[in-house]
Amino acid sequence: MIAVVQFGGSNCDRDAVRALEDLGFDAERIWHEDELPAETTGIMLPGGFSYGDYLRGGAMAARSPIMETVRDAVDDGIPVLGVCNGAQVGCEAGLTPGAFTTNASARFQCEHVYLRVENADTKWTDAYDEGEVIELPIAHGEGRFEIDDEGYEELESEDRILFRYCDEDGNVTDEANPNGSRGNVAGILGESESVAVLMPHPERASLPELGSTDGRGVLAGFDS
């Protein structure tokens, strides 16, 4: 069972459950003050505005009681995926390095973007080919990925960058970077391949009626 953790202010938890169920997974929303069910085989930290982004996106949710259990689950090899606000929570909780901060535009941005698959040899990306371009929506005001030089070099040398923002032809340019993220980074791995965070929303591009199924490959990582 995939536990979709619901914080006060989450607004993509139902979307995540619907998308995961459409892929054949058993998924359930779990309130952040409750325990993870014993049958948990995966954890998703969904998008939204946990605690109204008070202090900064994800900062308070990262200190919610359930996150200690999530860290223990990571140590046990249970896969964890953080999306949008969930990516902010993941970084704030130390599951992945770096931080997501205010967009370079200082505006909330809701639009479709192109992503280039940088590493197709992970559980979260093995449905794609390296260099493949997919299209996912974003909806965030604090999506700019920042990390120090040492951390960035480590991500690159260990091939832990999953996606970069690009144009339709796969060119990674400043113009294709919607929020000013360092190196156009849109998604990364933690120290373990079982943990990933990304700012775009795969669950919003997973059903034919949504106009795109490009995100299904990311969510399918819970089964690999």
From TrEMBL:
Q: Which residues lie within the region annotated Disordered?
A: 203-224
Which InterPro entries does the entry mention? Class_I_gatase-like, PRibForGlyAmidine_synth_PurQ
Q: Which reaction does it catalyse?
A: N(2)-formyl-N(1)-(5-phospho-beta-D-ribosyl)glycinamide + L-glutamine + ATP + H2O = 2-formamido-N(1)-(5-O-phospho-beta-D-ribosyl)acetamidine + L-glutamate + ADP + phosphate + H(+); L-glutamine + H2O = L-glutamate + NH4(+)
Any one GO biological process: 'de novo' IMP biosynthetic process
Q: Where in the cell is it found?
A: Cytoplasm
Under PROSITE patterns, the record lists: GATASE_TYPE_1
What pathway does this protein act in? Purine metabolism; IMP biosynthesis via de novo pathway; 5-amino-1-(5-phospho-D-ribosyl)imidazole from N(2)-formyl-N(1)-(5-phospho-D-ribosyl)glycinamide: step 1/2
For this protein, the record's CDD domains field holds: GATase1_FGAR_AT (cd01740)
- Name the catalytic site residues: 84 (nucleophile), 201, 203
Q: GO molecular function, one example?
A: ATP binding
Q: Which GO terms describe its cellular component?
A: cytoplasm
Q: What is its main location?
A: cytoplasm
EC number per UniProt: 6.3.5.3, 3.5.1.2
**Record has Ubl conjugation as a keyword:** no
Q: Which UniProt keywords apply?
A: ATP-binding, Cytoplasm, Glutamine amidotransferase, Hydrolase, Ligase, Nucleotide-binding, Purine biosynthesis
Q: Which Gene3D superfamilies match?
A: 3.40.50.880
Q: Which NCBIfam families match?
A: FGAM_synth_I, PRK03619.1
Subunit field text: Part of the FGAM synthase complex composed of 1 PurL, 1 PurQ and 2 PurS subunits.
Which function does this protein serve?
Part of the phosphoribosylformylglycinamidine synthase complex involved in the purines biosynthetic pathway. Catalyzes the ATP-dependent conversion of formylglycinamide ribonucleotide (FGAR) and glutamine to yield formylglycinamidine ribonucleotide (FGAM) and glutamate. The FGAM synthase complex is composed of three subunits. PurQ produces an ammonia molecule by converting glutamine to glutamate. PurL transfers the ammonia molecule to FGAR to form FGAM in an ATP-dependent manner.
The protein here is known as: Phosphoribosylformylglycinamidine synthase subunit PurQ
Q: Which gene encodes it?
A: purQ
